[in-house]
Every structure is written in structure tokens, then in C-alpha cells.
Amino acid sequence: METYKKYIAGILKDDKISIARSITLVENEDDASDKLLKELFKHTGKAYRIGITGPPGAGKSSLTNCLVKHLVQRNLKVGVIAVDPTSPFTGGALLGDRIRMQEVGSLNGVFIRSMATRGSLGGLSRKVVEVCDILDAAGKDFIIIETVGVGQSELDVATTADTTLVVLVPESGDAVQAMKAGLMEIANIFVLNKSDREGADGVAATIKNIIHLKPPSEDKWTVNVLKTVGSLNKGVEELLEEIFKHKNHLTESGFLKKKRKNNLRNKIFELVNNKLQSKFWDENRKGILEKTIEEMYERQLDPYSFVKEIVDFSKSE
């Protein structure tokens, strides 16, 4: 039996070692990873995905820890993907989040993995989506994706998660006013963490005012602002109830199905683009590019004409 088939058998039994080794296959783009993901696909689509984003220092890891504990208390299985910044030296994740999550990682039914962004402009590596599928196939009821938290580059978490939390702190103050519109728009729930600090009520009121200025969402969901203190586990039960409320709203309105179909469509686009790109840039075309790059550098040829010529040439092959 091929190794990846053994991993599949283990994943379907929620075996942590099989899950971990399969994720490594995906991260390293091993030849067997496509076969593994292909076989697992029919076992996916059941897990509910929660995205947690927001600026660094907002206490996202503390909130994640608390949410995991509350979900486990309800006899639910949880997978956590902590997306860390890529180390400039090793290309790997800094693993800070996973170290902080060791306590909940030992709980029954919980699997935690830290992943590097690997230079993805969106901060959310394409591999994260594939790792979600592995955890989904393993029978996890909920998958929490905690992202790096660098503003605009975190917007793509909303295309992966079913419910997206944007976590802020009282110190956000004036930053909320100037915050990039995209980050404000992806939130299904705003969480004002560390709300025992001075200025919390004022920031909560500011966020609510911004919400009221937004046009209503297509699914007619009313975005709320919840106050928590993750380090003390305060307000987390109420936050979880709001997540379940959003989940029920999406399910009953049919928007969960619509959103997931759209995510699948985007996944197909990306898979096709990757296949076409890797197939297109064979050694011959790379050679043509290298021979022409000097002309472009000297502005004797423009990139647009070059692309048209090489694409037209490919069509005639």
C-alpha cells in the first residue's frame, strides 16, 4: 500500500500522526499530496470554519484557546490552524501561536498546526485551504483559522471561513477610524478584546457607528460588537453563542451553501491557473524569456508585446 493511502486511513480515524504527516506532504507539495487530497475530498464539507483576524497584539491566540475549550466542553472536535509570519531565515513559521496553544492541544479531539504564510500576499497560504480539507475529513466539527493579522493582506480569510471574526482592542481607538475598509467589511462579528481596559466603551461605540453606515449585507445578517477579555475567559461563551447564531442564519437563509459553492469555484480557478502556469513555463519558454529579458530591460521591447507574442506562438504549436 502506498504511504499516502495509509495516511488516508489514519485521517478518517482522526489519528494525529497521520494528520500531521499528511499536512507535511501538502506543505512540501509532495507528488502524493494531490492523490491524497483527491481521495479525501468526498469526506469533506462537514466542518464549520471560523476565521479570526485583526491587528497584532489583539489577543487572538487567547481567544482561540478559550473558544477551543468551550467547543470541547460541548463534545465537539476542533482543528486549529495558526498562520504565522514566514521566517525570513528558514521559510518556516515562527510557531509562537502553537507554543501558546500547547494546553488546549492536549485536549481530546483537538489538533493544532502552525503554518507559514510562505510569502502569500494574502497572508493566508493556499495550502491552508488544503489543510482545512484534511482536518475536515478527519471529522473535526469546527476548524479555527487564526491569521497573522496585518490588515489588508488578511482579507482572503473571508473567502475560506464561514464566519469571520475581526478582533480589536481598546487601544485601536483612532486606528478604527482609519482602518482599511476591506477589513471592516469582512467581519461577521466584531470582537473588542481586552475590554477591561480604559476606552473600551468608546471604541465599541465607534465600531457600531461604522457598522450602521455600511449598506446591509446580501444575507441580511446584523453584525454585532461583542466585548471579551480572552485572558480571563470573559465574554467568550457569549461570543460562541453569536458564532452559532451566525451559523444558523447562514444555513437557514441558504447563504452557507451559496458561499461554499463560490469558494469551490474560486478553488477550481486557482487549481487551473496553477496547472496552466506550470505547464506553460517549460524550459523552452523560459529560455525565450531569458534571451529577451535584456531587450526589455533596455526598453527595446515592452512586456505586453512579448506576452502577446509568446501566447500567440503557443496557440499555433
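That was protein one. Protein two is written in the same sequence-then-structure order:
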Amino acid sequence: MPDELDFFFFYGSTYTYLTVMRIERAAAEAGVEVRWRPFNVREIMLEQDNIPFRDKPVKMAYMWRDVERRANRYGIPFNRIPTYPVDPESLANRVGVLAAIEGWCPEYTKATYRAWFLEDKPPGDPEHLYQILSSLGRDPETVLSSADSPEIQARYDAETDVARWMGIFGSPTFVVGDEIFWGDDRLEDALEWRKAHPA
């Protein structure tokens, strides 16, 4: 069995775009399996009074330029600054929880981020979700009904509780055992740590 890396993320996170578009290849080259784990980082950040860009236009401008620079470095498309913030009801995230359970989370997540960053179709918008799910061969009505179920909400809350307990405060975060690595620029560090500390 390959070593595992837990990937905690939130569909409204900007830097997570970079990770989503490159984690599969990086993990495969390292011989590491990725476990995709959507969680509600917004809830944790509100608890910690840690909303990094709210009412901070200078920091916001830096963030978008930084994402663009890093995207260019990795060869990841970046066409424009997309709508932000997004997914106020966490619908895209709850669909992600369902997708993780059913085994189609990477495809859904990449499609969601491409639609957001390249076409300015914000995650969580029902019209955009219908298009994405249909393109993946999923029945939108069935998926959205399941995403609204108490079971999926409970799983979303449980994943958020796990992240809270681990000391996770941002997205993306990578977890290896008790070690957490926050930020897209820590992906390689997390993979190296996983290889140096096999389960």
C-alpha cells in the first residue's frame, strides 16, 4: 500500500486552486496516495477571528498577484481575478464531501476550480454546479439532494471537527500523522516528510 497524505481544503480558498491543479502529479511522483478531505475552514477562521483579506484591500491585491505568479511558475492557467468570496452556503463543499465518499472528489474539485478561475463561475452557484455535475456524468438532482442531507452535513461538520482538533487553521493543509503543513508552497515539504516517515 502506498503512503497516504491527507489533503484538507475548502472550495472557497484561492491558493487551493494551485494545489488542486498539481497535487495528483506531485503525489504520484512521490509514490504517495492523497486522501481528499473538504472541511469548513471559514467556520474555523471566524472562530479565530482570522479572516485574512476582509477589509484588507492591499493584502487582497498582493494575494491575487501572488497566486498569478505562482500559477505562471507551475504552468497553471490564470486568466483573470475571479469572483471572491464564494460558496456562502457551503454547497460546493458539501458536494465535495459526497464526492470524497463516493470516490470522484479529484475530478469534481478540478472541474470546480477550473470553472471558478478560468470562467468566473463561482463554486456553490446552483447553475454552475448543475453544469459541472452534468459534465462529470453525475445526475445533478440526485447529487444536490444528497449534499443537502443530514448525513452529508454531519460528515462535513465531522471533518471540520477533525481539522479543528488537529490545529488546522487554513486551506490548503496537508497532514502526515501529527504533522501539519499549511499552504500550497508546503506541498513538497509534506510529501518529503511522508516519504521520510512512512506509516
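The mean pLDDT is 95. Keep this in mind for the problem set.
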